[in-house]
Amino acid sequence: MTGDPFASMLAPMFAQLRDQNLWRRREVRSSPQAPSVQMDRETLLSFASNDYLGLANDPRLVEAFCQGARRYGVGAGASHLLGGHTRAHHELEEALAAFAGTPRALLFSTGYMANLALLTTLCPRHGQIFEDRRNHASLLDAAGLAQGDRRRYRDVGGLRRALDAAAPGGLVVSDGVFSMDGDMADVPALLALAKAHGAGLVLDDAHAFGVVGPEGRGTPAAYGLGYDPALVHMGTLGKAFGVFGAFVASSADVVEALIQRARPYIYTTALPPAVAVCAQAGLALAIAEEHRRVELAERIRQFRTGAAQIGLRVLPSSTPIQPVVLGDAARALGASRFLRERGIYVPAVRPPTVPKGSARLRVTFSAAHSRDDVERLLGALSALPGDVV
Ligand SMILES: *Cc1c(COP(=O)(O)O)cnc(C)c1O
Asked: CA 244 from chain center: how many Å?
């Protein structure tokens, strides 16, 4: 007998991951998130962050964080319901509700937890969940935890058929911007179908808030939709707003239900108040500094034009997520390695995160990227060897 039962238990899994080119490793960054990063002692031009507006290292936000820590200390010290809920959290919730155009908003520590909270609270056991098959892992996990009766759909037509075949009610659940493909869900169609069926729509706008729609108000606003109590809108504070945390914006009833019943809300420590102070400053900058969205859109356009000239297969996307599909995992890894040798950091995304045969380079842009940064990326991509492209 050996003293380590885990070693033999885990060995087959490790062998399989290595065989299939699916072994993952973390890189150690020693600089702020920015176009130029220090990674494992190299300086790299990065196209990997979700810091779409270039706010994660903004000196004004660093100062807001410090001020928040000086006022509140560093830890909330308790959950929201047991004394951890501060004025900083409360004011941020009010600002988020105003931004999203909903009666209320509720803060969560992470988007992952917000999604677990939403589906476990809004879906009764065996309740119907209609989910896009490309939904973020946190939504898929949430549907599993909710023990709902799950139907996966591929597109709006598939959703219509699934709803037609089902009893009224339930939840339609979708990303607003799909995190691996970068395209936007047809939110008006999803909402209309859901409502016609007596169902609610849960929309995860993690990649849209701050970026998509007027003043970055998200995918419903991009389609011209206003407040609708049938729509529950979720977003994160760790992407375009540059900080950390997440929120749900919705009717007062849905927020109250989450406060009363959602275990990922109730049984966890509140965010550090300084994070809330800082996130409120990030939200204000994201709203006010329209030039960031303009610059971001220019970089995206520049990349798409250049990539088309090279003949790369870039998925149709108008968002900062621009996937270059290469096929199998080995190719995507090879391309990522090729760029890395030229000082450019673009991660390869492989199954199971994306479907088999669609491994890709996931290029993401930030308002902080310059024209020259994008030119440098295009130059390196145009030199990708034929056995990779
Ligand atoms: C990033 C992301 C989340 C998780 O948000 P965190 O705050 O990072 O936990 C949820 N949904 C989508 C679509 C995301 O991209």
From this structure: 12
